[in-house]
Amino acid sequence: MARTDDDSWDLASSVGATATMVAAARAMATRDPNPLINDPFAEPLVRAVGMDFFVRALDGTLDISAMPDASPERYQAMVDGMAVRTRFFDEYFAAAGEAGIRQAVILAAGLDSRAYRLDWPDGTVVYEIDQPEVVEFKTRTLAELGAQPSATRRTVAIDLREDWPAALAAAGFDAAQPTAWLAEGLLIYLPPQAQDRLFDQILALSAPGSAVGTEYVPGIVDFDAEAAKERFAAMRDAGLDLDFGELVYRGDRSHVLEYLTAQGWSVDGLSRAELFERHQRPMPELDDALGEIVYVSGRLG
Ligand SMILES: C[S@@+](CC[C@H](N)C(=O)[O-])C[C@H]1O[C@@H](n2cnc3c(N)ncnc32)[C@H](O)[C@@H]1O
C-alpha cells in the first residue's frame, strides 16, 4: 500500500516489517561460526513478531531456491551485509563512550537491542524513538524474556514526522550534554525534505562533542520501484507480503555526507565493500538496487 503522510504500522506491516527483516538478518549473523556481532535478542524478537517468512528463515525451512535472484551467495551476502553494518554502529557507540559521551539517541530503533546488549559506560542514558506499536512491542517482549537494559533506557513512542524533539525533551533528554545519535536503516523511509529536517533537528539538539551515525544510500535517487516490485513478488509467493518499492521515497535528496559536512560535522564514511574487505567477507557481484551504501559517522566540534 502506498505511503501517506501519517501512516502507521506494527512490526508485521509496512515499514515496521522492515525492522523485523533486518532483525532476522542480525539473528542469522549472530549464528555465523565466525560472528562479527552478537545480538542474542534478535531471534526471540523475530519469533515473537511471528511473521511466518522470517520464522521459517530462522528455522531453515525457507525454500530460497523459489526466489529468482535469491542464490545462497546473495543470501549470505545479505546476512554479512547486516553483520558489517551492525558491527560498524556497535563500534561507533563504543567510540562515543570512550570519548566520554553518556547520552545516546537511537532514532527509528525498531528491534535494535543495543540498549540491552552493548557494554555502555556507567551513567549512560539511551533514548529509543519509534512508532508507538513498535516501541511497546519490543519493550514488552524483552521484559517477558527477562532481558535487562545495560544502560538507563528511555523510550519515546512517537512518529518522527511529529514533534519528536519535544517528546524527547519530555523524556528527560539533556541538549546541553553531548549526544551520540543513530539513524540506521531510516533515511530511505523518509521523504527527501524530512531527511534534511531530521538532520537539522539533530544539529539543533547537539552540544559540542556530539556524534552522529547514519548511512548514505546512493541508489535511492534512481531506485527502480518496478524492479523491486518484481523481486518482492517472488518473495510474496514464498510468503512475505511486503512491497519494498512502495515503502521507500525515491528521487533526488541531499547527499548525506555533504549535508552533514555543511552543517559542521567532521564526517567519515566506509562503504559496505570496504567493510566486507575489512572483515574478510566474500563480496559477490551483486546488482544491488540501493547502490554502494556508505556507513557514516561524524563528530561535532
Ligand atoms: C529498517 S527498520 C530499521 C530499524 C533499526 N534502526 C535497525 O536498524 O534495526 C526501519 C525503522 O524505521 C522506523 N521508522 C520509519 N519511519 C518512521 C517514522 N516516520 N517515525 C518513526 N519511526 C519510523 C520503523 O518503524 C522501523 O522500525
From TrEMBL:
Gene Ontology molecular function terms on file: methyltransferase activity
Superkingdom to which the source organism belongs: Bacteria
Keyword Transferase: yes
Transferase among keywords: yes
Coiled coil: none
Keyword list, A-Z: Methyltransferase, S-adenosyl-L-methionine, Transferase
GO process annotations (BP): methylation
EC number: 2.1.1.-
Enzyme class: transferase
Functional summary from the UniProt entry: Exhibits S-adenosyl-L-methionine-dependent methyltransferase activity.
Family to which the UniProt record says this protein belongs: Belongs to the UPF0677 family.
Protein name: S-adenosyl-L-methionine-dependent methyltransferase
Organism for this UniProt entry: Mycolicibacterium brumae
